[in-house]
């Protein structure tokens, strides 16, 4: 018997390790939104073989060599977005954004675009697997991804090591573009959470007028950093009190411990910028926790999706969510983008908030490719480092989400944050944009 | 090894020191926390109540592990998935009932029908599992069915994902059936928690009665003692084993519905963590022992809720509740050090 007890003990330890691994999920979410100029010039017609004026010597000089496409070869763009699991709306929405872009612009540098869609799983493991699958494809031109910052951290490292440009439409964790931790081939069209956290803090004190707040994160880079930025800004901008900074684990279902601990100080606002499954449960359970009845609940773009509404039910009413401002100026989004999105997705409305960022990412990559591609004897060459440099020098690009300019750390977004509230509209819960006005 | 004096070698000494150290730390932490006086009495009470409710669900799942272990001496790692299948399938029954208006018209009957669906589905899955994955390996070395169990677990998870999709789904609410609180003894419980606890208790009592007072129960105990002798006594061992799996499945299905009463969500991966927690509960209580499983489940549930707030807050550890699993499993390690067979584990000489 003792022998079997020992086996049990070993098994328990194994399971512990498994459980721990499973908790390491990541996240992301982003924002941006244009108010500046509408993007009238979305799909520029691509002209044949690209505008570069290079020669074979450039390919040898380039540390990572060239993407070489024989005449008639497709140009492959990889995506690494979360397209399964509780957060599938986040990535599927972006993937549709990319497909819409490809419908407007099916050829880049004279080559038909083909996709290699991978799933980032919204976790570090998923991001690693997706990035490895993509870099193993020899001629991959660029990667659009990841959805979740937690997946983006390892994926950026893998793609940058191979000299492959990776542009995320929805990673928002500040560390990804912080000078010390930025990977050289990584950029994003989503906002940086330094902006989102500050905007939410401003909304909390100026609009909601609250003086105390608590935060919950799930240990993922996205949630951890966003909650932290919010807390620091709330103290700084609003002179507010942060009563608790709690954390939960991905996959957890019972949050009474966390909520009771937070309820001890009855904060006026509870901000938990996490993901769909846990976000829904915390919303429900907070409603039943004594001491939190009057606390305003708020989250962020990680669960800004109808899937979360469905998983939460009536408890969602009154909830505030920060995210990218989708009130884009100009008519392109309404008149052309959305009809194409509806056709490709079969949905009436976008299922999350980063489709336009994905659309812009695709077009900026396409522009950068065409700026550096050159042909020689019918073969198109795209030097990888030059492609990266061309992308990073993007300046004043008129996209759907605004006017995008990349800095040296890969932040390209024209970041605008809005806050929406879940309201009962004709008997149905919907997201209604409440701030900023206009 | 009864009769032999315990050897106090270095390893044992280390383990005792480790265990003692942890206990001292916990005691000091609890003292510090309580002297801070952050949480009110009501809040401690609701933590305990939530712990009891969660613990009862763990206990029901743990019974499935313990029953199978008691008879086959194998850990059925796919049991968490049996639990998931019941809850997930019953979701569709519940939404259908909701669409038909029954959730509002007659919530009790609707709950009963949902429960029935979950229990039946889980039972069928458990029976198929036994027939397909375990029976062909009955005589194989012990590690073989264990690996099969893990394989079956993955198979069931991803089949559910294929069938039902990978999203999270929310159960409809049962009219206004579960609103408000109820006083049970000194505790004020939300009604849904009370329903969960009472239902779990009733099922456990029924099982206890079944095992101890029916012919089939007696046969199960006989098979557990010695399969070969039981077979010679005219007991159909295969039939008893299938019955055991079926009962474990029924309980897992019921646990699935109680779990959704508490948490309201289903998805294809939902069986993983509760399965591991329930397995832990079974080991904690002494695997193979029915009352032990119930005790282990309750201990684990209460510890998870109460533990981080009681033992860790005092040290001003940031985000203590993120460490609740660490705490729960630390207790498991302690129990395994000091009582390798769990609270009520029988000393066997298999």
Note down, in words, how this protein is organized:
The complex is a heterodimer of chains A (438) and B (350). Chain A is α/β, with parallel strands linked by helices and 438 residues long. Chain A has helices spanning 2-22, 56-61, 88-104, 124-135, 149-161, 193-208, 221-238, 256-263, 276-287, 306-312, 332-345, 355-372, 384-392, and strands at 66-69, 75-81, 107-108, 111-119, 142-145, 165-168, 186-188, 212-217, 241-247, 269-271, 296-299, 320-324, 374-376, 379-383, 397-399, 402-404, 417-425, 428-435. In chain A, the strands form four sheets. Chain A has a seven-stranded mixed β-sheet with strand order 9-8-10-11-12-17-18, with helices on both faces. Chain A has a six-stranded mixed β-sheet with strand order 3-4-2-5-6-7. In chain A, strands 1-14-13 form a three-stranded antiparallel β-sheet. In chain A, a hairpin with a 2-residue loop joins strand 17 (417-425) and strand 18 (428-435). In chain A, helix 4 (124-135) runs parallel beside helix 5 (149-161). Residues 22-48 of chain A have low confidence and may be disordered. Chain B is mainly α and 350 residues long. Chain B is built from 13 helices and four strands. Chain B has helices at residues 10-36, 41-72, 79-99, 102-105, 107-134, 143-164, 191-213, 215-225, 227-232, 237-263, 272-285, 290-312, 324-338; strands at 169-170, 181-184, 187-190, 265-266. Chain B has a two-stranded antiparallel ribbon with strand order 1-4. In chain B, helix 2 packs parallel to helix 7. Chain B is globular and about 60 Å long. Classes of the chains: A alpha/beta (438), B mainly alpha (350). Chains A and B meet through helix 1, strand 9, helix 8, helix 9 and helix 10 of A and helix 2, strand 1, helix 10, helix 11 and helix 12 of B.
């Amino acid at each position: 018997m003792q022998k079997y007890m020992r086996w049990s003990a070993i098994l328990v330890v194994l399971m512990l390790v498994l459980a721990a691994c499973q908790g390491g999920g990541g996240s992301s979410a982003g924002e941006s939104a244009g108010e500046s100029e509408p993007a009238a010039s979305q799909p520029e017609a691509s002209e044949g073989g690209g505008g570069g004026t290079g020669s074979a010597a450039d390919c040898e000089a380039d540390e990572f060599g060239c993407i070489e496409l024989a005449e008639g070869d497709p140009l492959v763009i990889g995506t690494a977005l979360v397209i399964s699991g509780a957060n599938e709306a986040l990535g599927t929405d972006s993937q549709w954004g990319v497909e819409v872009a490809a419908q407007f612009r099916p050829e880049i540098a004279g080559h038909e675009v083909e996709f290699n869609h991978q799933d980032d799983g919204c976790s570090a493991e998923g991001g690693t697997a997706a990035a490895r699958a993509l870099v193993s494809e020899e001629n991959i031109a660029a990667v659009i991804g990841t959805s979740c910052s937690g997946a983006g951290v390892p994926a950026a490292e893998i793609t940058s090591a191979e000299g492959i440009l990776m542009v995320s439409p929805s990673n928002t964790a500040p560390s990804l573009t912080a000078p010390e931790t930025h990977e050289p081939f990584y950029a994003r069209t989503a906002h940086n959470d330094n902006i989102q956290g500050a905007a939410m803090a401003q909304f909390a004190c100026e609009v909601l007028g609250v003086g105390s707040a608590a935060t919950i994160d799930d240990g993922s880079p996205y949630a951890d950093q966003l909650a932290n930025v919010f807390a620091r800004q709330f103290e700084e901008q609003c002179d507010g009190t942060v009563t608790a900074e709690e954390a939960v684990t991905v996959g957890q279902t019972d949050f009474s411990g966390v909520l009771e601990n937070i309820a001890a100080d009855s904060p006026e606002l509870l901000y938990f910028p996490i993901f769909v499954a846990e976000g829904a449960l915390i919303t429900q359970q907070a409603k039943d926790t004594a001491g939190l009845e009057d606390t305003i609940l708020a989250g962020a773009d990680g669960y800004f999706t109808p899937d979360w509404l469905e998983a939460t039910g009536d408890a969602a009413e009154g909830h505030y969510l920060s995210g990218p401002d989708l009130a884009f100026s100009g008519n392109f989004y309404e008149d052309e983008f959305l009809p194409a999105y509806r056709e490709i997705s079969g949905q009436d409305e976008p299922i999350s908030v980063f489709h336009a960022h994905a659309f812009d990412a695709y077009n900026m990559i396409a522009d950068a490719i065409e700026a550096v591609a050159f042909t020689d004897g019918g073969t198109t060459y795209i030097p990888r480092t030059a492609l990266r440099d061309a992308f990073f020098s993007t300046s004043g690009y008129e996209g759907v989400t605004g006017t995008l300019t990349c800095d040296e750390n890969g932040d390209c977004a024209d970041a605008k944050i809005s806050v929406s509230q879940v309201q009962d509209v004709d008997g149905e819960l919907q997201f209604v944009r409440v701030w900023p006005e206009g | 090894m009864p009769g032999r004096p315990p050897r106090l070698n270095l390893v044992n000494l280390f383990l005792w020191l480790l265990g003692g150290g942890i206990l001292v730390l916990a005691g000091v932490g609890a003292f510090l926390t309580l002297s801070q006086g952050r949480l009110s009495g009501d809040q401690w009470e609701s933590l305990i109540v939530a712990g009891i409710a969660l613990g009862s669900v763990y206990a029901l799942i743990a019974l499935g592990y313990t029953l199978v272990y008691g008879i086959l001496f194998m850990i059925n790692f796919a049991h968490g998935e049996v639990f998931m299948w019941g809850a997930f399938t019953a979701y569709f029954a519940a939404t259908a009932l909701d669409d038909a208006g029954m959730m509002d018209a007659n919530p009790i009957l609707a709950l009963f029908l949902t429960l029935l669906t979950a229990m039946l589905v889980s039972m069928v899955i458990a029976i198929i599992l036994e027939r397909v994955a375990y029976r062909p390996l009955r005589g194989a070395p012990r590690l073989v069915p264990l690996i099969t169990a893990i394989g079956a677990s993955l198979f069931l998870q991803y089949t559910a994902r294929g069938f039902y999709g990978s999203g999270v789904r929310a159960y409809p609410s049962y009219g206004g059936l579960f609103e408000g609180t109820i006083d049970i003894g000194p505790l004020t419980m939300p009604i849904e928690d009370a329903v969960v606890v009472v239902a779990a208790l009733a099922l456990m009592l029924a099982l206890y009665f079944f095992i101890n007072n029916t012919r089939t129960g007696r046969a199960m105990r006989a098979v557990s003692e010695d399969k070969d002798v039981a077979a010679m006594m005219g007991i159909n061992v295969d039939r008893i084993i299938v019955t055991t799996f079926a009962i474990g499945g029924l309980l897992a299905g019921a646990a699935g519905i109680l779990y959704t009463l508490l948490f309201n969500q289903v998805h294809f991966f939902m069986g993983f963590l509760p399965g591991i927690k329930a397995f832990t509960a079974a080991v904690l209580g002494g695997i193979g022992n029915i009352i032990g499983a119930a005790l282990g489940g309750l201990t684990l549930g209460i510890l998870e809720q109460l533990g981080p707030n009681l033992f860790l807050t005092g040290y001003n550890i940031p985000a203590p509740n993120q460490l609740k699993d660490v705490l729960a499993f630390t207790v498991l390690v302690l129990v395994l050090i000091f009582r390798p067979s769990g609270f009520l584990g029988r000393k066997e000489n298999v």
